[in-house]
Specification:
By secondary structure, this protein is an alpha+beta fold. It contains 6 helices and 8 strands. Helix content is 55%, strand content 22%. A hairpin with a 3-residue loop joins strand 2 and strand 3.
Length: 257
């Protein structure tokens, strides 16, 4: 009878300690997580609460002489399953604490071929608004694992060299070039500019200065502009040849007078 009373006392004591630990775990989790993470905190509290009680009940039952090997195994498997399923969530949550000083809402970021303005930062992901108006959700842990770029408000500037023949009208060519890329202005943060870099007896080198919104559009923009430049070169070269012919004809006419 005395042994039975001891076992019952141990059983009740373990249940009491388990209840106390479960209560303390809720308080600790609520304190550790910010108020903005109430949903995440509630889920973690629930799982931890269940695991603590499962272990406590198993230990209590074991005190009265009942085999609990299978219950321990099932509880261990459940705990492992919980941590495996929660691991990605915890990764993203912890990553946010490291990234909080790196970028904020309103910044423009580029990661893994995706760029956009940050419109929301949650415990699990960072939401970007890309150039086409699409919302892109990027897990926070990606900013720890991958290389990403934060853009300066002035944009991403590149300079394209454009070499034309010396006999081509430079001013007219610059005007036509800027007009030909008007349809690409959705990719520009600032209007494109053309300046003359250098000139020699045969060629004139121009610099087309572009300020892009997103760097991943660089290849697309350069390809399209190169096509337009080549077309303009052919057109202006033809015009230059026609002007030379007209000048020679005028010279011949002047000589014949």
């Amino acid at each position: 009878m005395t042994q039975f009373a001891i076992e019952i006392g141990a059983f009740l004591l373990i249940i009491l300690v388990t209840a106390l630990i479960a209560h303390i775990s809720k308080t600790l989790i609520s304190t550790a997580l910010p108020s903005s993470s109430s949903y995440l905190a509630a889920r973690i509290q629930r799982y931890v609460f269940l695991i603590i009680w499962a272990v406590g009940i198993i230990l209590a039952i074991n005190q009265v002489g009942v085999s609990t090997d299978i219950l321990f195994l099932l509880t261990a498997l459940a705990a492992i399953g919980f941590f495996l399923s929660a691991y990605p969530v915890l990764q993203n949550f912890v990553s946010r604490s490291f990234l909080s000083l790196q970028y904020r809402v309103g910044d423009t970021l580029s990661i893994e071929g995706t760029s956009g303005k940050v419109i929301e930062i949650t415990d699990l992901n960072t939401v970007l608004l890309d150039g086409e108006g699409n919302l892109v959700s990027v897990p926070n842990v990606m900013f720890i694992k991958s290389i990403w770029t934060k853009f300066h408000p002035s944009g991403y500037e590149i300079t394209m060299p454009v070499v034309i023949r010396k006999d081509i009208d430079t001013v007219a060519f610059e005007t036509e070039l800027l007009e030909s890329i008007v349809d690409l202005k959705k990719y520009f943060k600032k209007p494109a500019q053309v300046v003359t870099s250098k000139s020699d007896d045969r060629t004139t080198e121009l610099s087309l200065i572009l300020n892009l919104k997103y760097p991943e559009k660089k290849s697309l923009v350069i390809t399209e502009i190169n096509e337009k430049v080549e077309t303009l070169k052919v057109e202006f070269a033809h015009k230059a040849e026609e002007m030379k012919k007209e000048e020679k004809l005028n010279e011949i006419k002047d000589i014949g007078k």
